[in-house]
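Researcher: Re-running this chain for the archive, since the previous output was lost when a drive failed. Same request as before.
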Amino acid sequence: MSAQNPNNLDVAAEALRASELRYRRLFESAKDGILILDAETGMIVDVNPFLIELLGISREAFLSKKVWELGFLKDIAANEAKFAELRAQEQIRYENLPLESAAGRPIAVEFVSNVYLVNGHRVIQCNIRDITERKRAGQELIESRQRLSRIVGSAMDAIISVDAAQRIVLFNAAAEKMFRCPAAETIGQPLDRFIPERFRAAHVGHVKVFGESGATSRAMGQLGSLSALRADGEEFPMEASISQVVVGNQKLFTVILRDVTERKKAEVALQEANATLEQRVQARTVELAQRATQLRALAGELTLSEQRERSRLAKVLHDHLQQLLVAAKFRLALLGRSADDLMKQATKEIEELIDESIASSRSLTAELSPPILHEAGLNAGLEWLARRMAERQGLLVDLELQETGALPDDLKILLFESVRELLFNVAKHAQTRSSAINVRRVDGFLQLTVSDRGVGFDPEVMTKAGESGRGFGLFSVRERLELFGGRLEIQSAPAEGSLVFLSVPITQQTAVQPKSTGPAVFPEAIRNDRILTPNSGRKIRILLADDHAVVRQGIGNLLSDEPDIEIVGSAADGQEAVEFAARLLPDVILMDMSMPKLNGVEATRIIHNDWPEIRIIGLSMFEETERAQAMRDAGAVDYITKSGPAEAMIDVIRSSVRASNKTPS
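Model: Regenerated structure tokens:
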């Protein structure tokens, strides 16, 4: 027997110890439970920490016991039989072997056992792996597949899956109903059978492009409206979405289909209904537009009718009532000259009552429709309005007026009333004491602006009729302007003042302004008659020009009573006044401002231009500065009111003649 080298023995022993250490480390750190059994007796000789922790049993409870004696095994008899089987076969594997922890928690394990020799002695190593989570995941997967199957089976839309060769692998119940074909007859069949023949080639190309695109899906509707073919040959419209997925090494395409036959019918019906409704709406819109136009025209006509009625009432007051009152006053003046003191006092009291009546009537006339507007034009009317706003409302109005030319009465009244409405709005709402009016003609339009620097307002709110008081006025002005083809624009904001812009188209109209052809030429005898007449050297020759006979008569009676005054003629309108002035060449003309055919201002301008030596005195029922200035601008030497004292009229006549050095000697 040969002796062994001690060094070799030491190396072998060291290697054995290292191997045992590595095994022990693996044994201690393994994430599977490990039991070491005696193969002959079934006694447990070792257990690793993982199994101790998994089952919640101490190491001492494991050791020196037979495996089937452990309480954690659900079925000891069955496990003893399994041990006998293991010992016979030397290797055994079980899944879903039931264990139970010390706390009673069930644990599903995978059990793998092997028999091997250790120093000639047979031992069994049992590897026990906890598969509870894996089993739970597997169960969840089964349940998920079942749910998916039920969802696919109960889906309202048809769902068809095909492989890369476009052979059907899934055909749900909705697809069976849609295509009128049982699933059993479709599985493994090409999808082409459900595609109209004219689309099949294109369909294959579309699927190929989609498969190569890398996109996972395309939503329903993105593919547009498609056509499909039922098993009985009926073609129908549908919408589809498609997706692709790789399962294993196989690519699957899934198509979700929706039959849109009823929807298409509904869309067609809706389009037809919409077309019919659109026609009805258009017809109704035209009808409503016509009615709106008619209503606007009616509203405008009512407004103009109101303005005309106001003018008519003002004319009645001016041309009849006021003239009668003036005539009565002249009669009283004559009566008072020859009466006793008691009668003079009575006539004086009556004159005062008449004066009050004239003043009230004159004020009402101005409110209804100021005569200055009709006699001297829009600008004169605006000047009168500015003065009246200052007197009545305390609103100072700055005027910048260009000549407007002759305007139709309706338009002139409309613009005047619109400006008056706007100024009232400023006085009531703007919280300011100043405003401005600008009038100018621009490219065939007459433009007026009314502005202020007051509190301002929101045009979007205020232009609604009835809003905050001023809204209806603005609405009314706009409606009236539109009847004349005009427009109203508003620029305003809170705390920034306001500017209201009115614009109306006007044509080049020529005012009724008869042109003089120069002084009338009469035979020399007629021209000298003025000098040769016996009375011409003693009396002032007067021509009366007034369209009211009762006023002419009253003034004539009053003046005829004066020894140095002679009435040589009377004219009922401005045109007659011009003609009589040429024929009679009077010393003085008493010229009423308001007369037909030719008003007193224009008649005065013509006469003064042709016969500047004739002294013209303006007459009116009103005392406005604008009226007096209009007459003076035309050539009148003075201006008096009919309602003034009779003696004042006589004094003015005499002073005007003396001023011209024409008084006969």
